[in-house]
Amino acid sequence: MDEAGSSASGGGFRPGVDSLDEPPNSRIFLVISKYTPESVLRERFSPFGDIQDIWVVRDKHTKESKGIAFVKFARSSQACRAMEEMHGQCLGPNDTKPIKVFIAQSRSSGSHRDVEDEELTRIFVMIPKSYTEEDLREKFKVYGDIEYCSIIKNKVTGESKGLGYVRYLKPSQAAQAIENCDRSFRAILAEPKNKASESSEQDYYSNMRQEALGHEPRVNMFPFEQSEFSSFDKNDSRGQEAISKRLSVVSRVPFTEEQLFSIFDIVPGLEYCEVQRDPYSNYGHGVVQYFNVASAIYAKYKLHGFQYPPGNRIGVSFIDDGSNATDLLRKMATQMVAAQLASVVWNNPSQQQFMQFGGSSGSQLPQIQTDVVLPSCKKKAPPETPVKERLFIVFNPHPLPLDVLEDIFCRFGNLIEVYLVSGKNVGYAKYADRISANDAIATLHGKILNGVRLKVMLADSPREESNKRQRTY
Fold first, then answer.
1. Which residue, 182, 224, 397, 407, is most buried by CB atoms nearer than 10 A?
2. How far apart are CA 73 and CA 143, in angstroms?
3. Closest to 456 in 3D by CA, of 378, 390, 370
4. What architecture is the 389-458 domain classified under in CATH?
5. Which among 129, 2, 154, 124 is positioned nearest to 68, based on CA atoms?
6. What is the spatial distance between Cα 175 and Cα 85, in angstroms, rounded to a whole number?
7. DSSP 177-229
8. Residue 38: CB partners within 8 Å, gap ≥ 6?
9. Which candidate, 19, 174, 14, 147, places its Cα nearest to that of 83?
């Protein structure tokens, strides 16, 4: 559909070309009479929401209307409701031919077909693994009538994977759910069930950016869900790959900047992301940049091949900026493997004594990999010193070893004790001075050390904690 000859009048906000599909499915495509003026379109469609612009497609030479128009709304739910209520209606009392209203296809798509209702009613969500289908239905029924809910489960164990689908009866209801549900659900529209097969997907990724997919190791010696560090074999050709803070992201289906951000913000340190639109293909292309190389490395090896939504794998590769951080990559891999091993041991109380006394040499200081500027080491306060401030520490995705924690938190001075809570990704630090505790919060909160993100905050007093429900994470 040629939109080059479109025109629009009227004041207010007018989105740029790059913003026409933000949010997704917020434009409607109209088949109308050639004699319908823009003022009538604005009058009939404004009750459904905030209209950002109207395009009436015109002939390039005669400037006459082609009987086609686009209306851009501020929200997807507004566009969907306009489609549901105005499709098949007549715009004026003298009109005998009803109009046709569809959700417009994304401009980044190679085709201009109309988006079908089936593609707009099913959403994909991330949920707690404890959720049942009834819990999922109860959470999302406030946005409209639900046709069905389903939870993705492991075929072998039958356990939930923490992913689910919700199918609504109307597109506007699904759009309302995406717009208004808690961001922790990371709700997006689900891929249609009749998309390309897995074999075509593999063909696509075999040629994508001339980068080979990673391979599973023959023997998994550690009880981790993924062996992302198995790729550090000295004969692995990827060991020579240029490393940088910038990543290229390629997807078989288009994605928005918000979706790209929600995926890569899982790894702390995200600086910005940008979607690059290719008018000649249906693929999604984007660039992601982190504040530090360590975060980019972790994101690359954690998210390359990640399915979002299920059935669509994204490809992640480094963008060569002239630097080479292979040594940093190997050091980070070693530290992160050690941290995960420590996490396994700390989740097993019977092994804690080994980790504290037999797992490391007392003559060597623990190594810390981070971009944070830390003070020099200071002596700990005597154990009998009165506690002036307690800090509560949350680790993501797993706790740091105790000797590393002690080395980090003693640098602010007046540290009495730091300890971990058995079986949980949390710990506490006790200080003999409030200024030292506040310095630790200011320096460490939200930062990454040895591949682990820390949340550091003031702990509740023991009396307050006894009156509260136990924290869950």
1. 407
2. 19
3. 390
4. 2-Layer Sandwich (3.30)
5. 2
6. 15
7. HHHHS-GGG--EEPPPTTS--HHHHHHHHHHGGG-PPP---SS--S--S--GG
8. 8, 9, 10, 54, 56, 69
9. 174
**431 burial class (0-12, 13-18, 19+ CB within 10 angstroms)?**
buried
**Per the confidence metrics, is the pTM higher than 0.70?**
no
Sequence-separated (6 or more) residues with CB below 8 Å from residue 260: 249, 273, 275, 286, 288
The helix (H) or strand (E) run that includes residue 175 is helix 171-180
Give the amino acid at 89. Answer: Q
Residue 221 CA: distances (Å) to CA of 217, 218, 230, 339: 9, 10, 10, 16
**Contact call for residues 415 and 409 (beta carbons, < 8 A):** yes
- The secondary structure element, H or E, covering residue 85 is helix 76-86
Nearest to 292 by CA among 440, 446, 396: 446
Domain 27-113 bears CATH identifier 3.40.630.30: no
Closest CA to 284 of 186, 214, 191: 191
Q: What is the pLDDT of residues 81-111, one digit of tens each?
A: 999 999 999 988 888 889 999 988 765 554 4
CATH for 118-193 is 3.30.70.330
Could you give the residue ranges of the DSSP H alpha helices within 233-378?
Answer: 257-264, 293-303, 326-346, 352-353
Q: What is the C-alpha to C-alpha distance for residues 117 and 103, in angstroms, rounded to an integer?
A: 9
Tell which residue, 47, 40, 129, 46, has the closest CA to residue 93.
Answer: 40
> What does the domain layout of the chain look like in residue ranges?
27-113, 118-193, 246-321, 389-458
Same fold, 27-113 and 389-458: yes
The SS3 of residue 13 is coil
Q: What is d(CA 80, CA 175) in angstroms, rounded to the nearest whole number?
A: 8
Burial 251-265 (b: 16+ CB within 10 A, else e): bbbbbbeebbbbbbe
Reply yes or no: is the peptide bond before residue 37 cis, omega within 30 of 0. Answer: no
Q: Is the peptide bond before 309 cis (omega within 30 degrees of 0)?
A: yes
Choose among 136, 173, 171, 176: nearest CA to 153. Answer: 136
Most confident of 245-254, 315-324, 326-335: 245-254
For the domain spanning 246-321, the CATH number is 3.30.70.330
Summarised one tens digit per residue, pLDDT across range 347-389 is: 554 444 444 443 443 445 567 778 788 898 898 999 899 999 9
Contacts of 80 (CB under 8 A, 6+ apart): 25, 103, 120, 170, 171, 172, 174, 175
Give the E-state strand segments of 21-113 in sequence order: 27-31, 51-58, 65-73, 100-103
**CA dihedral of 301, 303, 305, 306, whole degrees rounded to 10:** 150
Q: Is 308 helix (H, G, I), strand (E, B) or coil?
A: coil
